[in-house]
Design a protein that fits this description.
Layout: H1 4-15, H2 19-35, H3 39-66, H4 87-93, H5 97-100, E1 104-108, H6 115-128, E2 133-137, H7 138-150, H8 154-163, E3 166-172, H9 179-192, E4 197-202, H10 210-213, H11 216-226, E5 230-234, H12 240-256
Helix pairs in contact: 2-3, 3-6, 7-8, 7-9, 9-11
Amino acid sequence: MTDTPQLLLGHHLKVLKLPTFLREYDKLARQCATEGVEHTGYLLRLAELELIERERRMVDRRIKEARFPAVKSLDSFDFLALPSLNKTLVLELARSEYVLRRENVIAVGNSGTGKSHVALGLGLAACQKGLSVGFTTAAALVNELLEARDEKRLLRLQRQLAAYKLLVIDELGYVPLSQTGAELLFEVFSQRYERGSTIVTSNLPFDEWTGVFASERLTGALLDRLTHHVHILEMNGDSYRLKQSKRRQRGARATDIPDSSPEE
């Protein structure tokens, strides 16, 4: 009979969906008793633990729903390798206030300079601020839109894309788009205009975007919407990936040099 209250408490905490309460209440009770903490202080600590764990789970869920190809933070970005990048602006954007203002971010520069890393870092920061985020590449998004159109579910997909507080579209310009694909992608940007924030990364300067969309009219209308409220990150410089590759090759060659010491 002495176990009945504990069993009931465990059952009730499960029903109330308080897993941290269930896991920590006994250990924390002994700790508070040792420290002479009153019952209100004990309950406060227990509630704080539950809130911290609940927020962690919510962030994990947002990250999973964002479908990042990799989870990268700005803490691991090497700003020294790209002096042209405005670090102050990037760190300001990491506060995610631009998302609340429905502003856009465009990262433009040659390949290998970390545009995707910065986009992933800003997306992760937005998840940690409690905002819904979606991540995709331009080519993958266009394919998804074309498939949805063929399967009569385009409207549902468009609503889903419009609902994100922040939509990250990576690698715009790497693959030329068909006329239909370009029009569908334009529609995504149009539906998000002044309703949600969009991050775009591209290896092409703006005056070459016409080659991707194959229409000056469409490109002009797109840039008009994207750049109305925008933060532009100039990310031209030496390829970070290429420098890493060369560094690894030099290290490999160094280890391959035979020992010149005389044999014993």
